[in-house]
Amino acid sequence: MAQANITSHVRLRNHISGYTDVIQMLTGVLLCCFVLMHMVLVSSVILSPKIMDSLAVFLETSYLAQIGGPIILLVMILHFILAARKMPFSPLELREFWRQAKMMHHMDTWLWLGAGAHPARHPTQQWLVQVATAIVILVMASAHVINILSNLPISADKSAAAIQGGMVPFYLVLFAALDLHIAIGLYRVGVKFGILNRENRLKWRKYALYLVIGLALLSLATHYSFATMAI
Prior knowledge:
Elements: H1 2-42, H2 49-61, H3 64-83, H4 91-104, H5 107-111, E1 112-113, E2 126-127, H6 128-149, H7 156-192, H8 201-227
């Protein structure tokens, strides 16, 4: 009877873990889509500040900004909470991760976060880079969203004033974290669903690198446009 109860408990825990993994993946994909859309909309300033202002007016008059902003913030927090189940917070778990990473000598191992000292708590692996960037994104993106929503309306002049006022390091760090997090996250989704395998993994790593470079160039061009705007 005791063995049956233990087996039932393990199955229930595995089912719950599976569901939370799916929710974590879906929220991650949703956030990726939002960030990519947000970058495209903001980068419209490269063409013309008036285009960006027109898009901002549409988002605000339709209340997409006022409603969507808090929703995205909540989704981001939920995504972080679900991912935090697999993060090694204790010194013992961190030591175990470094021990395993050094032993494996593999790129995926160094980029992944190992199972740690508590396999039941860490049934899968995530990217080491994902953990570091997730913490950066949670703090900095939350501050960014709150700042934007508390200073409506959005305008190209306000963004340019922020960039020219010394906020470049903040946004460059935030962007770098987002860029890496998105590329690696989408790569891991492909691995999880079998889209990426041993035969095509190197090819998809190149695609992930192209995505990182492309987004970086777009971000730099956007920052340059804001930095050189007359306000």
